[in-house]
Amino acid sequence: MADKNIGIYSINAAGKTNILKGLKENHLTNFNICEGSEVITRNITLENFKKLDTENKSKIRREALKWLKDSPGNKIVTGHFSFPSFINKEISFEKVWTDFDGNFYTDIIYIDVPPSEIYIRQKADAFSRSDRPFLELEHIKKWLEYEKKELELECINLGIKFYIFKSLLDKNSDHEILLQIIENISKQTEKNNATNIEISIKKFGSTLSIEPKCFILIDGDRTLCENDTGIMFWKLYEKYYSSSNSCNNDFKAIFKNHGHSYFAFLQVAYKYSGLDSRIYNNICTKVIKETKLYPQFLNFLKIILSSHSQEIIPIVIVSGIVEIWHNLLYQHFGNKIPLFGGNLFPNDEEYVMDVKSKGHCAKLLKSIYPKSKIIAFGDSEVDLEMLAEADESYLVVDYTNNRALRQRFTEQKYMDLKKKLKKISFFNVTNGDKTENDEIPITTLDEIRYNLVYPSNLYEYTSSHASRIIATFSRHKETSGINLCNVHENIGYFMASKVIEKFEIISKSINHVQGCTVTNGFALENEEKIGIIVMMRAGDSMAKGVWKFMPKASYIHHRDNKDIDKYINHFEKLILVDSVINEGKTMRSILNYIVGDYKFRGKIFVITGVIQDVTARKLPREFPEVSFYALRVSKNKYKGIGDTDTGHRLYNTTLVS
């Protein structure tokens, strides 16, 4: 592992010498610790050094740094980035940082002390440090701001990790925290980052009682919500807490210079960690209040969690601010969704989630649970490796139409990803259609859920608004008799509108309402060769709703399987309608007869208002050639009897029962 060369930087009277002394006293044995001035004065006295011009001072600094760099081992060195100068009482700053500094340091810790404290220390040192200029409080503020800003930019450009340490003004506490930071810095490598992620995932895995059928890996920013919470954070910081108006640009500059690399996310973690904890928490709270998760994703996850808690495990993997995402997920799901990510230091168990790390998460889960399917949702370049590793990958369209990510699809390593990728868009026409026509096929969360949770030949509409409203009418205690029959007809008509998407339609001539002689309309192809088979009396009203959609179809009441023998040869399509499928015995019986005994070769469709959850998983798999359509899937195993039986409610025979 390469040597760590850590610089301790700040302005005069920030306490660098005392910090160095404290580090030495704490026996930091794996580091050589020295003051920058000690190295400079190896061959020249400090007094003579100060008399030199700028060019010769820079030369000696370079020689000192070269000597340090050639010396083996990790090093901690104090240094200066700039010094103040005055022209007509106006303060300016002379940068003494050289190219050699940039080539030498791997990390910079900047000691941030309140200007008022530095002013007090100056006064106390006025006689003992007469070599230093005495600065007014306003000048101290400007110097600190200048150095923090310029040194951070210098470090970002050069790939040096930059950490602002806010002094607690307590010697022991400062030394203790700095020791922790330095120990952490010495351990920070991509390899250790990957190890910490692996430990975290295995720890999570130990809580699972069975091997899941599927893991759903979901990015946070611009995937679960429209906004980027990191950008929101820095805009709010800029608005309420900073005199600078470039905080958000500085944040973006890290990724512009270093991509979505380990260094970039580690530097961002340093940036967050350098903030006052109260300010950090206040801004997080504001961002949480302003962030709305996509309702489609909320619904998708709630259904997954309520129905399949052991079989299908959603996991949110974020590269952004963990506190924000922890709170957002907790608000909606409690502690049901695991969250992986990291953005604060020091903590030697922490990690950052860069592009490779996200891919590593997917790869780890695949290796630990080889029978489990991996599905991934993401929107940006940082999700590329995760999407590439997944068995099924979904691109969530963002407000940029994912421009940056799309450009990466031309790379050879992502060619296979592009072939399997599908996209999801939550933008509708009223908000402005922000998608574009391209070769990536579009899908929906409902479609993904159908294929994931239930067999691919089951089409259920449990989460649709129409289904919820229609089902409400049918379940209302006061609705019965002719009113309930009307509701069931509406359900049948609605379900027929879904089924016919699998039918062929033909053009036909019609007399137009505007008075034209003829115009083109459409009709179902061979409508007269469709047979609607009504299961039980409870399916009659629903079947009539289907019949309204295709009035030329035949309408047959099923009493016995042989009832349909005399008709079946006439049909190309059969639609079996029942209001409720509980265990599926009746439906299984007729399907076994039609498919197995009779060997009907046409297309078969089943329409029902409700199918019980367990049956929804089994029955369609038993008959893969049959398409099943259900208004909703129910986990309620209760079978209606008496005044709760659907047939009795439909025909007002509850008293007879």
Automatic annotation (TrEMBL):
Q: Record's CDD domains?
A: HAD_like
Entry's SUPFAM superfamilies? HAD-like, PRTase-like
Domain Phosphoribosyltransferase positions? 464-653
Name listed for the protein in its UniProt record: Phosphoribosyltransferase domain-containing protein
The species is: Diversispora epigaea
